[in-house]
Amino acid sequence: MRRILPVVAVTATLPLVLGSSAGAADDSGDVTVVNTETVQAKLDATGALQEARVYEQLALSGRGTATIANPVSTSGLRNLDGFGAFRVEDGRLVTQVEVDGERRLRTVSDFDGDLPLGVDIRYTLDGTTVAPGDVVGRSGLLEVRYTVTNLTSREDEVTFDDGRGGTATATATTVVPMIGQLVTTLPPSFTDVQTAEAGVAGDGRGGTRLTFQMTLFPPIGSPTAEFGYSARISRGVVPAASLTSMPVSPLDYPSFKGGSASYASGAESGVDLTSGAITINDNLLRLHDGAATLLAGLVQLDEGAGTLRDGLTLEAAPGAGDLAAGLNGKILPGSRTLADGLNDQLLPGASTLSSGLVDQLAPGAKTLADGLNDQLAPGAATLADGLTDDAAPGAAKLAAGLNDSAAPGAAELAAGAAALDAGLASAAAKAPALIAGLTQVDDGLAKVDKGLADLSTQIGTLPTKAQPLRDGIARLRAGIGSTAAPAPGEQPSLLYAVNAVRSQLGAAATTAGDTVDSIADLKAGVTSPTTGLAAFTSMLPAGAQASYQAGLGNVAGGLDQLSAGMSDSASKLSTAATTLAAVQCGLSSATLPGVCSTAKPGLLEGLAGLDAGLQDLTTKVVASVQGGVGSATDTPDDETLRGGVNGLRAGVGTIQGGGGDLVAGLGRLGDGASKLSTGAGALSTGLADAASGSKDLADGLAGAATGAAAISEGLDGAAAGSTKVADGLGAAASGSEKLLAGLRSAASGSSTLAAGIGTAAAGSTTLAAGIQRAADGSELLAEGLGTASESAPQLVDGAQRLSDEGTSQLVESGAQTAATFGTGYAVLAAGAQRAADEGMAYGAPEGATGATAYSIEIAGADGSGATSIGKGVAALALFAAAGVVGTVVRRRTA
C-alpha cells in the first residue's frame, strides 16, 4: 500500500536582519535570523507511516534585542535547550532574545502537516509477491521495488511565448521541486545483487551499500521515481533503509541551474526558429504568388512569342524573301537591262540619228532645195530658152555634158533619194514601237512605284505588330523587378521576394547552427563534471552515481537527437538558400555580385537585350526601308527608290513626247523624200534621154526644146519637193534632238532607277536576312518561353511544396520546440515559485529565511522489530540531513 513519506526540501535562504520592526517596540540592534526545519518520520517495512516529528532551529547572529514569532507545530512542543516555557500566539512561538554574537534556539514537536512524498514498497520472492515478514528466514531470489512519488503535483496553467508573436497557455503538471536519495545496506547473506538504478559499494563489513538518487520534478526528472534491486538470499531478512529529500529551486540550485537555462535557451531558440520560419513561409507564399504571376506572364508571353514567330516565319520572312528575290532576281536585272539598253543602244542610235539629221541630212536637203530653187530651176528655164534660142550652138556642148556629167549625177541623185525614202520609211515604221515600249515601261514603273508605296506602308506597321511583344516583355521585366524593397501598398517583385527568402533562409540556417551550439552548451551543462548536472554526481553516494549518470546520459542522448535534427534543419535551410541563390542568378545575374556569373546573363538581362533588339529592329529597319523607298513627291536628287522611279517616268514621258514629234517629222520627211525620189528618177530618165538623144540634138531642137520645157517643169516640181524635204528634215532634226534629250533623261533616270533598285535590293536582302534572324530568334524565344512556361509551374508547385512540406513543417517544428521548451521552462519557473512559497513545512518568521529537510527511516524486518542497525542509520540520516541543511544555509548566507 502507498504511504506518505517525509523527504528533504530547501527554500532560498537569504539572511534576515531583524531590527526594531521585527518585534516589540524596545527591539534594537541588528540581528540576523535563519530558520531551519528538519522533519523526521519513521515507516515500517511496508512504507506505512508510524510517527513524525519536526525539529526547529533558529540561528541568530549579531548584536541587539529581537522579538521573533516563528510558525511551529504546537503539538508536543518542547524546548531542547532547557526547561523554559514558551509563549505561543496563533500557532507562532513568540520569543524575545538578546544576541551578542551567535545564539541558537531549538525545539521539537509532533509533525502534523502533509508530507510531500509518498513511498510504496513491494517485495517479490521467487516471483511471488510477499509481505515483508514473509521474507524473514526464507531463501530464494528476492526483488525489492521502491516507488517514491512527489505528492505536491497539481495541474496549473502555464504561459509561454508561442513564437508567432503572442503567448500560448498550456495545462501542465507542476510540483514543489524535490531531490533526494535512498540508502540501504544489504547484509552479507545477500549475494548476486543486481540493480540498474543504484550506485553500489561495500560497507566494510561484508555487506553491500546501495544508493538511489531521485530528481522528483519535471521536466528534468519525473514526479515519480521507481527503482530497486534483486539478490539471492539465505536466512532472509528485510534490510532497513533511509531516505532524505529537500525542496530546491531549479532556477538557482547549482546542479539544475544550467539545465533550466538550457530550457530557457531552447524556448528562445524555438521562438526564433518559429518566427524565422513564419517569415520564410510568408515569403515563400509571396514567392508562390509571384511565380504564379510569372507563370501567367510567361503563358501570355509564350502566346505573343508564338504569334511573333508565326508572323515572322510564315509571313514577314517569306514576304521579305519574295521582296528580295523580286528585287534582286527581276526588278534589279530588268532595271539594269533597261539602263544598259537606253545607255548602250537606244541613246547612241538616237544620238547618231540626231547627228545625221541635224549635221548632214537636214543641211544637205536645205542645200539641195536651195540649188533646185535658186539654180537648177532657173537654169532649166534658161536651158529651155537657150535650147530654143541657142540650141544649135550649144548642142554639141550639151551632148558632151549630158553624157559625161549630167547623166551619171542624175543617176546618183535618184539612188540617194530612193535610199533616203526607204530609210525614212523604216524609221517611221519603228518609231511607234518605241513609243509603245516606252508606254509599257511607264506602266511598269507605275507598278513599281505602287509596290514601293505598299512596301513602305506595310513595313511601317512592324512597330505596331511588335508592340504587344514589347509590352509583354515590359510586364515580365516589371514582374521580375529588382531586390529593392517595395513601396508601401505595392506588390513585392519576384527578385525582392526571392532575395528576401534567400536571406531569411540563410539567417535561419545561421540561427539553426547557433541553436546547435546552444544545445551543445546545454549538453555540456548536463554532462560537465564541474559546472553541469554531472557535478552533483560527486555529492551522491557511490552506489547512486551510476543510476544518476545513466539518467544524465538519457538527457544527453535526447539533446544529441535534438542537435542532429537542428543540424539537419540548418543544412536543409542552407541548401534551400543556395538553391534560391541559383534561382535569383537565373532571374538576374547582376543581383548577387561574386555569386552570379556575369558570363551567364539572367532572364532579366535577356529580356532587356530582346527588348533592345526589337526596338532596334522596329526603328532602324523601318526607318531604313522607308527612307530608301521614299515618298510620292521625291525626285532623283532625293536618292530614293520612288524618286528614281519618278525621274525615270519623267524621262519616259519626255521620250514619248519627242517620239510623237519624231513620228510626225519622219512622216513629213518621208513625203518629201518620196517626191525627191520621183523627181530625181524623172531627172535621171530625162538626162538619160537627153544623153541618148544629144546626138540627134541638132536634128531635133524642137524636141529638145520640148524636153527642156519638161525638164524645167520637172525641176520646178523637184524644187518644190526639195523645199518640203528640207522642211521635213528640219522637223525631223528638231524631233531627233528632243528624242535625244528624252533618251538622255531616260538613260539618267534608268541609271538612278537601277541604283535605287540596287539599294532596295541590297536593303531587301538585309531586311530578309534580319527578318530571318528575327524569325530564328522568335523561334528560340518561343521555344525558351515554352520551356519557361512549362517549367514555371514547377516553381509555383515547388514554392507551394516548400511551404507545405518545408517551412510550414519548420514553423510547426519551431512552434513545437517553443512549446516543448517553453512549457518546460514555465514548469521549472512555476516549481521555483512553489519552492519559494511552499518549500517549508511551517514557514520562517516574517522577514527571515529558512529551509526544511525531510528524513525518513524505513524499518527492516528480521523477526525482532527495529534493529540497532536501523536505528543507527536513522540517526546518521538525521545528522546528514542537518548537515546538508546547514551547508546550504551557510552557502546562501555567505
TrEMBL record:
It comes from the Bacteria. Residues 1-24 form the signal peptide. InterPro entries: xxxLxxG_rpt. Keywords: Membrane, Signal, Transmembrane, Transmembrane helix. The chain crosses the membrane at residues 872-889. This is Uncharacterized protein. It comes from Cellulomonas persica.
